[in-house]
Amino acid sequence: MNRYYVDLHIHIGRTWTGKPVKITGAKSLTFTNIIEHARHVKGLNMVGIIDSHSPEVILEMESLIESGEVYEHEDGGLIFGDLTVIPGSELEIYDENCHGPIHLLCYFPTLAVMRDFSNWLSGHLKNIQLSSQRIYITGMELQKKVKEMGGIFIPAHVFTPFKSLYGKGVKKSLAEVLDPNKIDGIELGLSSDTQMADQLGELHNYTFVTNSDAHSLAKIAREYQVVAMEEPTFKELYKALKGEDGRKVIANFGLDPLLGKYHKTVCAECLNPLQEDDQICDLCGHSKIIKGVADRILELKTAETSPPGRPPYVHQVPLEFIPGLGPRMLEKLVNHFGSEMAILHEVPFKALKEVVPEKIADLIMKAREGKINLAAGGGGKYGKIADQ
What we know:
Blueprint: E1 2-10, H1 31-42, E2 46-49, H2 55-66, E3 71-72, E4 78-80, E5 83-93, E6 102-107, H3 111-121, E7 133-134, H4 139-148, E8 152-155, H5 165-169, E9 186-187, H6 194-197, E10 208-209, E11 224-229, H7 234-242, E12 248-254, E13 266-267, E14 289-290, H8 293-300, E15 313-315, H9 327-337, H10 340-345, H11 349-352, H12 358-368, E16 374-375, E17 384-385
Parallel strand pairs: 1-2, 2-5, 5-7, 9-10, 12-15
Antiparallel strand pairs: 1-11, 3-4, 4-5, 5-6, 6-8, 11-12, 13-14, 16-17
Helix pairs in contact: 2-3
């Protein structure tokens, strides 16, 4: 069995003709740039591009196949040398069963299936060109369609305060809006980790995935997983999510929840940290509160421990969070050692300090070993590395 670095949630900002797809995505986040950056800078082996339903994105992928730069594997997935792309789509539901909008991820094995899905979607949403559009059917109807087409279905960033399953989408249980038997995995999001999520007993039967939700090239692989598969294909990924035939997620690598934008409860006006039961900010008097992920999970808590066999969650600080490690120095590191994955996982301290100042090398090692002090984020503001 082989080990692969996998990030299944990457957005496209613009098409090859410059049209917007993910409005909040960077203009540099094109399909071609994603492939180049994921392969040669990040060192990933598999990515999920979750705006692949957009017709121009489909045309671009088809043109790459026609030119011979890409081929489709018989077990699903688009092969770009040593990188596999899994076509996906992020959609929003807000049906009569939801208490707030919910984002969901749908993945398919081939471009032909994705094109069929895109054609079907166009009859259920307002703008098929754009990402994360609201689809005017129920969550269960969407699940049924995805499964009929041989797809993978995963609720996205399930604890974030906005547009997520547990943020505001349901009162207590995912079964309020989704069929529990048609879920293939649970995406944790940047403000939670395995230990936090496993406080919800109903999640114990699902594999957890940790993805970047990248809106820029630099954010790719800020969270990812190492997956055991025979080869990087759609079929093997599905087996890994189900834990079949030795395929599995070996480990999740993600931000310490303190670094996430929504970890703690804060005042929506001034981002002053608040307690769970506070109704008014004691600093500015504002009454609108953004409930943090940690407090929301405590509201929903039904379990104390993780189920047996749950893979480890490794808290990892992305290189862009390291104070003093700017773009030029990071580029120097990548050029010297090959990829960010190599820097994060493999390069010894002695080699690092030969390329960057010893203080930066020391921070990279401390981050790798989970020995770095952090200040918590909240209300849409990332946490940060505190004074060491």
